[in-house]
Amino acid sequence: xxxxxxxxxxxxxxxxxxxxxxxxxxxxxxxxxxxxxxxxxxxxxxxxxxxxxxxxxxxxxxxxxxxxxxxxxxxxxxxxxxxxxxxxxxxxxxxxxxxxxxxxxxxxxxxxxxxxxxxxxxxxxxxxxxxxxxxxxxxxxxxxxxxxxxxxxxxxxxxxxxxxxxxxxxxxxxxxxxxxxxxxxxxxxxxxxxxxxxxxxxxxxxxxxxxxxxxxxxxxxxxxxxxxxxxxxxxxxxxxxxxxxxxxxxxxxxxxxxxxxxxxxxxxxxx
Length: 271
Hints:
Strand order of the largest sheet: 2-1-5-4-3
Low-confidence stretches: none
Order of helices and strands: HHHHEEHEEEHEE
Largest sheet: 5 strands, antiparallel
Structural class: alpha+beta
């Protein structure tokens, strides 16, 4: 039945009907008209207000989320840059032969661990990729790094900051390596590993509430810190990440449990 036919049927007026029946139909028609005139605008305004409220509420969530993720990423970048600068300064202040001296390297390791915090060990590596001096809790002198990715990259870029990995130590850490040259122009490398607990401290300072989550991931979608919702460090992050986004990127996604989540990604341009 079309709308026009339905309308005619509702408002049909038959002059052959008795008078009281005609007034009954008129009363019904007036009630319907009053309903339409009253409730259609009301429902329309309610719908508009609802969508405006939702839009305003989302903005109130997005703006602080964007700000806090950007500030936290900046704090982590500063932490890494500070550690990288300290390793660069150390390698530039001492010669290859000085840092190859076990007593000198042990002394500098103790100083840096006390003053900067977070350093796990130091290692001096020759141009062939062999660790010739080591200061730290493990026995790694003589280890060959020549076939590892970081060794080739630091030879090209003069510095390297790794992703989080377990390595020989069995706990998550990152490696920072810098390249220097001796008086004969021969390359050598100073490599330090850093405990990632500082990342956890910085993320904890964000004050994320119980229904939220914050963590680091690398471009391969691998967690670099523990996540309350998505697993432990080095597990796979299940949601897609923007591959080429710079700065802070906000996305509304569906998590593996089917919940709608608002996600803020902040890209680290250097690390």
